[in-house]
Amino acid sequence: MTIPLLSEKQKVYLILGGVIIICLAASFFIVSFFLLKIQTASRDLSEKKAEIANLQKKEQGFSESKREYKKIQPGLNDLDQSFLKGGDFLPFILILEKIAQESGNNYENKLISESSKNEAEPGWTTADFQITLKGDFLSLLKFLTYLENAPYAIEISNLRVQESSQTRIVNEAQQEIATIIDLGAFIERE
């Protein structure tokens, strides 16, 4: 079998056709490579835009929280003063005595205990007091109102009211009563 010889013109066409096929194949691979890179870059760009939008929302929420904190910050100082200083119960006891005097009650006070951190809710300890008042019912109500408006954070755990064993006035509306109040005053966290 003999292979016919190609003329000069055919050789040029054959080489030119081969070069064109190689160029087209190379162009296809180069274009597909760059298209994949463009798709990846586009996906990354859209993810980063979403992240930026989320960060802007978080920043806006943070700014709102910061403004709200600035509004309530003056009240936080008052709140800190609502707690007893550890071991220094004298100002609280003096206020209790003043309230009892202003409300017209005879007053006795006992510091029962200072709760340990294990007994109390995490971070909150209390100084537990037992207050005994003697006076009429109206005086008790005045004392409780003054106590509620006192500058300390307290919790009344028990309130017992009983008729006083001393004098009993039958004809008048003001009968003397004895009241025992168990309360806890919250102590500042360390």
Number of strands: 4
- Unreliable segments of 5+ consecutive residues: none
Considering the protein shown, what is the CATH homologous superfamily of the largest domain? Ribosomal protein S6/Translation elongation factor EF1B
CATH topology of the largest domain: Alpha-Beta Plaits
Secondary-structure element series: HHEEHEE
Helix percent reads 40-55%
* CATH domain class of the largest domain: Alpha Beta
Structural class by secondary-structure content: alpha+beta
Largest sheet: 4 strands, antiparallel
State the distance separating the first and last CA atoms: 105 Å
Task: Give an overview in words.
The chain has two domains: 9-80; 90-187, Ribosomal protein S6/Translation elongation factor EF1B (Alpha-Beta Plaits, 2-Layer Sandwich), CATH 3.30.70.60. It is built from three helices and four strands; from the N terminus they run ααββαββ. It has helices at 8-80, 90-103, 137-148, and strands at 106-114, 125-135, 154-163, 177-187. With 190 residues, it is an alpha+beta fold. The chain starts with 7 loop residues before the first helix and ends with a strand.
What is the fold's blueprint, element by element?
Layout: H1 8-80, H2 90-103, E1 106-114, E2 125-135, H3 137-148, E3 154-163, E4 177-187
Antiparallel strand pairs: 1-2, 2-4, 3-4
Helix pairs in contact: 2-3
What is the compact description of this entry?
The chain is of the alpha+beta class. Helix content is 52%, strand content 22%. It has 2 domains: 9-80; 90-187, Ribosomal protein S6/Translation elongation factor EF1B (Alpha-Beta Plaits, 2-Layer Sandwich).
